[in-house]
Structure formats: structure tokens, C-alpha cells
Amino acid sequence: MGSNIPLTICPYCGYHMDAATHSQQTKAEPEPGDLSVCMGCTGVLVFTDSLELRVIADAEWKELPEELKKEITRGIQAVKTVKRMGYRTS
Questions:
Q1: Helix (H) or strand (E) holding 53
Q2: Which of these, 36, 32, 41, lies nearest to 14 by C-alpha position?
Q3: pLDDT digit string, tens, across residues 26-35
């Protein structure tokens, strides 16, 4: 299950996003500062105060706990696997 978010465009690839899901919860309610992965290009993004998405800064990435980086990397790999299997992400 996911949550609607304001329509936002990935700053990396231009993919249009208007929903979010959580990898470990049944209901995703993003909050400012939460992280996301673009389904179009797998870029790592951060929710802003208005729940739009922006690029994560290198310094922000470096400060993340290693376990969270591993979880994000698993999410990226999951998106890539889905795309390789031929499922549409758009």
C-alpha cells in the first residue's frame, strides 16, 4: 500500500512521481527528511518540507548510518530487478 504525494519530477531523470511506498511497512506516510529511491533511475532522493523530492547531498549520504545505506542499496537493487524482469515502473 502506498501514499499519494504531491506530483514531483525526479531531478536526476525527469520521472514523474505521485506516490510513495515503504519497504517494510504496509502504509507509507513520508515526512520531510525521509529518503526515497526513484523508480525511473534509482536515484536517491530526500522529501522536502512540502513532500516534493530533491537530490540527496553527498554530505547527507555520508552521514547516514551504514545499515540505512544498506537498506537503500537493497531498494535500488529491487527496482533494477523489477525493471530487468520487464515490469513497467511508469
A1: strand 53-55
A2: 41
A3: 666 889 999 9
pTM, two decimals, is 0.83
Distance set, CA 65 to CA 36, 62, 69, 70, 71 (Å): 15, 8, 6, 9, 10
| Sheet with strand 35-37: strands edge to edge | 35-37, 44-47, 53-55
Q: What are phi and psi of 51, to 5 degrees?
A: 65, 20
Compute CA distances 79 → 50, 59, 82, whole Å.
25, 24, 5
Q: What would the grid cell of residue 72 be?
A: 537503500
Closest CA to 81 of 44, 54, 50, 42: 42
